[in-house]
């Protein structure tokens, strides 16, 4: 189960962020090109070029679909294990009940904001904050 959770985390990190490894990989390719053609790649700071693709080959979409399908399978396995573990913990079969709320209030943004502060080592606690909390959520 730990292997599955680690893979989910790695996939999320790689897919949702520009990973440092992607930048390092690109720099390795650039270094090799400069070594192969020293005069061709002079240091030019202006313009700075960025790549924007208008279209993608179908293989990209197939790969994205395959990754999403694999992640869904992993999520399902983790959820089943969590439900099993929780049932053991409480000593009976557990049930999930969905609570439908029409509109998510802006005050509920406190949770991701605090989470972001924790990740950036800027969290100082909730004292003095006007924290939104709805017992129905």
UniProtKB/TrEMBL annotation:
This is Uncharacterized protein. It comes from Ruminiclostridium herbifermentans.
